[in-house]
Structure formats: structure tokens, C-alpha cells
Amino acid sequence: MKKTLIALTVAGALAGCSSSQETPPEPKLDTNDQKVSYGMGLVMGERMGNDLPDLQMDQFLQGIQHGHAGDEEQTRMSREEIQQALMAYQAEMQEQAGAKQQELAQKNLEAGETFLAENAERDGVETTDSGLQYEIIEEGEGETPSAEDQVRVHYTGELISGEVFDSSRERGEPVTFGLNQVIPGWTEGLQLMKEGSRAKLYIPAELAYGPGGNQRIGPNETLVFDVELLEINPE
User: Fold this and answer.
1) Residue 39 has what pLDDT?
2) What are the beta bridge partners of residue 136?
3) Coil, strand or helix: which one is 137?
4) How many CA atoms lie within 13 A of 216 on its CB side?
5) CA distance 146 to 3
6) 227 close to 190: Cβ distance less than 8 angstroms
7) Which DSSP string corresponds to 47-102?
8) Record's Pfam families (predicted)?
9) Can 82 be counted among the known catalytic residues?
10) Is the pTM of this model over 0.85?
11) How far is CA 20 from each of CA 114, 169, 215, rounded to the nearest angstrom?
């Protein structure tokens, strides 16, 4: 909505548009003023396409004409009416976005439950009381960390679709963090590993990022991590 308000403000600097029903001639782009005017209109149009997919073009162009003319008697809405319309539109968009988020969250939750139910039947996969699943790929010989320990790890994080959303291996640098500073699935899963181990953690949504997700993970996503526990409490 902030982008929309900015774009509407920018619109006031544009030249008035013809209301004739005849197709106007192609405007020239010879002078810099003409190029800037066209460029501003193009950028604004792109923003409008993203911010207002249901933009009513006739009313929009008339608003530009009246705003550029600067004649208060010509305008058809007061500033208060415009603000009320924008607030109502924003509330409607938020409601629609919330409904889509809930629909996606339910879809992801059901897909994750199906995946975990099938995965639990595979040889080598263990399921804890919390619902976390883990699979030891390489058994280490070191100590097991506690929730208060720091750990140094290499990992690759995937969605159940196989899409990689994060990887220390791709960055070429292991990471160090406290086990009580990460998602519950990591806190529990790393305590099931010995130093030097490599395991796969299959983390249900409630032990990951839940219905909120984050910037790279959708709501109620089940996550798969391939983790190497390199060192406990590294210096």
C-alpha cells in the first residue's frame, strides 16, 4: 500500500491524458522532458500492475488528469474519501492474503504429514516422541552435545520437494551456534548425534517454523536437513 501511495503521488507530476474516444497519435520521445514523462508513466504502470491488479484504467486516468490540472472544483473525491477508500482496499487485500496463507499452510501441513508417515517406514529412520525423525548416515565417536553447548556444523536444508533453501556447504564455510538458539528440531536432533556424526533430520512443521514460516520457507513446511556435527564447543 505504501508503494501504491507513492505511485499515486508520482502520478500528479504526469501530463494530462486525452479523454477523446479516438486513438491519439503516438506521443513523441524527442526531448528529455518527453522521455522522463514516458519513463515515469512506465514505472508507475509497472507498480500499478503489481499493487493494484484490479486497477480501473478509466477512473485512474481521469484522476491523473484532475490531479495534474490542480483544479479542486474538478476533483470528484475529497482527500478523506480517498484515504477511506485506500484503507478499505488495504483491509480487503490483507484479508485475501491471509486466506491464501491459511490455505497454503494447510496444504503444506498435509503434504508434510504424508511425507513423514511414508518416511517413518524406511529402514534406518527413527521417530522420537516429539515427532522428529532422524537417520544416522555416519556414526561419530565423540561426545553428544547438550542444549547449552555450542556446535560447529555443516548442513544442507531442503524442502520435501528437494528444493535447497540453505546450505553451509554451498557457502563453503561451516557455522557455529548455540543449540538453544535454533529451531526445536535442531535442538533435539543434534543431541541425538555424536561429534563426528552425519545424519538426516526430518523436522515436522511444529518443530520448525510453524504456520508463520520465514522469508525462504512457506507456512507449515516440513524440513529435511543433512547435518554433519563437526565439533562441540569449538574454541
Assistant:
1) 92
2) 199
3) strand
4) 9
5) 47
6) yes
7) HHHHH-TT--HHHHHHHHHHHHHT-TTT-SS-HHHHHHHHHHHHHHHHHHHHHHHH
8) FKBP_C, FKBP_N
9) no
10) no
11) 60, 62, 47
CA 38 to chain CA centroid, Å, is 32
Judge whether 165 counts as a catalytic residue: yes
Question: Is 219:108 a contact under the CB 8 Å cutoff?
Answer: yes
Cβ pair 108, 209 in contact under 8 A:
no
Give the Cβ contact number of residue 200 at 10 Å: 19
Helix, strand or coil, per DSSP, at residue 164: strand
For residue 141, the one-letter residue type is E
Active-site residue (options: 155, 202, 203, 232): 155
Whether 202 sits among the annotated catalytic residues: the reply is: no
64, 209, 217, 232: the active-site residue: 209
Q: What is the pLDDT of residues 119-178, one digit of tens each?
A: 999 999 999 999 999 999 999 999 999 999 999 999 999 999 999 999 999 999 999 999
Annotated active-site residue 123? The verdict is no
With contact defined as beta carbons under 8 Å apart, do 76 and 66 qualify? yes
User: In the 8-state DSSP scheme, what is residue 216?
Assistant: S
What is the average pLDDT value for the chain, to the nearest integer?
88
Annotated catalytic residue: which of 134, 225, 226, 232? 225
Domain ranges of the chain: 2-76, 123-232
Please, what is the angle between helix 57-69 and helix 2-11, to 10°? 60
